[in-house]
Amino acid sequence: MSTLPNFRFEDAPDLPGSENLAKYGVAALRRLVHRLWDIEVTGLEHIPADGPAILCPNHLSFCDSVFVPLTLPRRVWAIGKGEYLDDWKTKHLFPAFGMIPVDRSGGDAAKVALDTAARVLDGGHLFMIYPEGTRSRSGNLHKARTGAARLGLRCNAPIIPVGHSGTLAVQPPDQFMMKPGLPVKVNFGAPMRIEDAGDPSDPRTIRAFADAVMFEIAQLSGQKYVNTYAGSDDTPSPTASDQTAVPTAPTRPTAPSQPPLRTTFASL
Amino acid sequence: MNLASSIEQHDPGRPALVDADASYTYGELTAQAATVRSILTASGVAPDDRVAVLAGNEPSFIGGALGALGVGARVIPMKASNPLPELERKLAVIEPAVILVGEEGAWIHEHAVTLGVTLIDVPTNTHAEANRPPIVDRSPDDVAFMMLTSGVSGDPKVAMLTHGNLDAGQAAISTGVDDGLRPDDVVLGALPVAHIFGLNAVLLTALRVGALLILERRFDIHQSLELVRQHKITVLAGAPPMWRMWCQIDAPAGTFDSVRIALSGAAALPADVCQAMQTQHGLLVEEGYGMTETAGVLTTNRGIAVKQGSVGQAIPGIDIVLVDDDGTPVEAGDSGEIVVRGPGIFCGYYNDADTTGQVLTDDGWFWTGDVGVFDDDGYLFLVDRVKDLIIVSGFNVYPAEVENILSEHPDVLGVVVVGGESVETGETVIAHVCGSPDLDELDAFAKARLTRYKCPTEYRLVDELPVAPTGKIIRRELR
Fold this sequence. Notes:
The complex is a heterodimer of chains A (268) and B (479). Chain A is an alpha/beta fold. Chain A has a single domain, classed as Glycerol-3-phosphate (1)-acyltransferase (3-Layer(aba) Sandwich), CATH 3.40.1130. Chain A has seven helices and seven strands; from the N terminus they run αββαβαβαβαβαβα. In chain A, strands 1-7-6-2-5-3-4 form a seven-stranded mixed beta sheet, with helices on both faces. Chain B has a domain at 389-478: ANL, C-terminal domain (GMP Synthetase, Chain A, domain 3). In chain B, the strands form six sheets. Chain B has a nine-stranded mixed beta sheet with strand order 2-1-10-9-11-12-13-14-15, sandwiched between helices. In chain B, β9 (186-189), α6 and β10 (212-215) form a beta-alpha-beta unit. In chain B, α1 (26-42) packs across α2 (59-70), α5 crosses α6 (196-209) and α8 (240-248) packs across α9 (271-281). Chain B is globular and about 75 Å long. Classes of the chains: A alpha/beta (268), B alpha/beta (479).
């Protein structure tokens, strides 16, 4: 059992989870979670009392989406699969947590997700996004997608690196139940701004900033960093000055290239 | 086709070259090249034989190189300023049939016996027209030039460029009525002609379009400015160290007024130099990206809006893909090794199938060894060399980024960053610093501006840094 941090239920009528049901539901869940698990939280002073910020945690377990939001002093919104609304178990619960459903099947899914995130931040709220794009199966911290960095630039919002540990033991992959009584640590880092990393219009700055955020997360989570994307079975799409002008991908004599696969939602 | 034919299309009375007080018309240049052809033919030089041209930025280089190309030989430009031992090393790799010697290379005659290669002076008087052998027709795939690459990475390599390669490189610069080189242009030939930038982008392209080339045998800042003023230079091409000098010297207002095209290449142009030229002289220095193996330019910001820090967009006909270690194209916005394909890509290193196989694939892709990243508009930004990458705790550290930050310190004159071994982090960042900074203060300066893992863990003060004449750092000397 751990101490329950102060909490303010933020009014956001245009975002999901603003009804009374959510208000009392979230309060109950916060109490329950802090009673069932031994949660140690550090760095809460880095969370701004007002205004937008992007929380960037490492991602090991499904229950990261429970522990990180419920240790914050403010409400936080995040994007989730539209399919959750089709399931009676999750259709009310997840939006109450601040999940904004986005249909991932459409071609402009990434744009819709970004616009949704921008709506949250422009409203002065907290938004959470996993910079690795998906859960790390290896336990290592993986290379960041640049979506969070771009979002921070677009909405003039700082990024708060978050490193947690213990969630994998609470809920290992593909387990529905969360094991109670285990220790969980959630560490919030100091806010970071892309403008401090250089000229934001330079693509090198965006990449360098995304890497710097991962470095801070690694310090906070204690994970080993590997410079590959999580779930690297998904092969990314090619980049070129003019993709239509590149009929074939190059092949290194010793290592033939793999065929390009789809771009996933995770590439946000 | 034959590159040597390009000068024959111009009016023989048209001025082609100025070398100090002497000037030459296209007719005289054509006659000199033809005389070289007859001498080489008489000496038994056959198509595909290797002919070295030992000269400086002088008319003899042009006459010699075009003459040798004209008999179908492969030309190897060699700097007359090479010390003898270096020259001997290079000659051992090339094994030329003959060496054509210009005025600047005349010192080599003293060593004729030890070298054991036929030396032929490039003639200044020309043979009668009747005795001139015709230019041998070549296929675009036949090798025209064999270029000794600047060799910052180690052993000298000899890149073989075909007539087709060089033709494509020249076309990229000379096409377009307003944007490209024009017959009425006056071009400063101060870049070394033994380097691909000076050879193909400046010298051969100027002659191809029928422009006037003002040769500067040895670059001197004051002399070059005098040439710009005196000849009303319209096309000014330089390497970054030259541009730095041009912007640092207190040139009188209006010095560069005649310049309509300002080009920088061979190494990355520092942003402060680019800005200084623009603010002080109103000159927009256009940067391109290319290398010997690509016969020059791959990307340029000519004719498009210049983006600070970018080398521009790929020129038409050039495909560029960024790939990761496995050769998989990286995602949009990610950095990766620059892999290119196009008509200028060389056909391999001479007598070095292993090195060729590591960088050139059968389907024509060339692995540049450079890391770059595209922005959303297709502008390429160079990051660093693949092999200079330092990996600290799994994170990529590119020396260029650290060097750029440390160079901003007022007491730092120059800096080179290399990787060192570390038990805790795998590799660590070591900075070799030239200048007089207080190292604790420099460390604090770095920590305030760089992510922690990019901060040097060790600083070494050095008297001077190993820098090649093109401005490239010779890193291997510090590893």
